[in-house]
Amino acid sequence: MIIIDHGKVVADDTLRVLHRMMPITNILAVELENPQQVVRVEEIRTIPGVQSADLKDGLLRVGVQNLSAETPAVLGWLATHGHSFRHVVSERPDLEAVFLSLTGRSLRDS
C-alpha cells in the first residue's frame, strides 16, 4: 500500500506494517452495562500499557499496544471498580486513521 501526500510518497508497505507505525495500534471498545455510571477514565490511563482512554455515551475506548497483555488489566480494573460491561471488541485503525497519523491531514483534505 502506498500513501502519497502532495505528490510525495509518505509510506510504502503493507497495511499490517503501517499499523505498527501508528502511536496506538489497537483499540479496546467496551460497552458499559450502565452508561450513566461514573468511570474514572484518568485512572484507566495509568494502567501499564494503556496509551489512551475515552468514554462517550457508555462506550469506553482504550488505546493499547498489546491486546493480550492490556485487555485483562483493563477488564479487571473495570470489574474491581464495579463497572459491568455487556460487549467487548477490539479494533484496528482504518486507512483514514493511518493516513491522518502519517500526514496530519484527512483523506478528504487531500
Kindly provide the radius of gyration, computed on alpha-carbon positions and rounded to a whole number of angstroms. Answer: 16 Å
Output the helix-strand order: EEHEHEEHEH
Give the number of helices. Answer: 4
Name the helicity range.
25-40%
Low-confidence stretches: none
Strand order of the largest sheet: 4-5-3-6
Mean pLDDT metric: 80
How many beta-strand segments? 6
Distance between the termini: 17 Å
Shape: elongated
Biggest sheet character: 4 strands, antiparallel
Q: What proportion strand?
A: 25-35%
Structural class determined from secondary elements = alpha+beta
Q: Give the oligomer, counting copies of the same chain as homo and different chains as hetero.
A: single chain
Furnish the topology, listing elements before pairings.
Layout: E1 2-5, E2 8-12, H1 15-20, E3 26-32, H2 41-44, E4 50-56, E5 59-64, H3 67-80, E6 85-91, H4 95-103
Antiparallel strand pairs: 1-2, 3-5, 3-6, 4-5
Explain what the structure shows.
The protein is of the alpha+beta class. Helix content is 30%, strand content 33%. It is built from four helices and six strands, in the order E-E-H-E-H-E-E-H-E-H. The protein has helices spanning 15-20, 41-44, 67-80, 95-103, and strands at residues 2-5, 8-12, 26-32, 50-56, 59-64, 85-91. The strands form two sheets. Strands 4-5-3-6 form a four-stranded antiparallel sheet. The chain has a two-stranded antiparallel sheet with strand order 1-2. Strand 4 and strand 5 form a beta hairpin. The radius of gyration is 16 Å and the shape is elongated. It starts with a strand and ends in a 7-residue tail after the last helix.
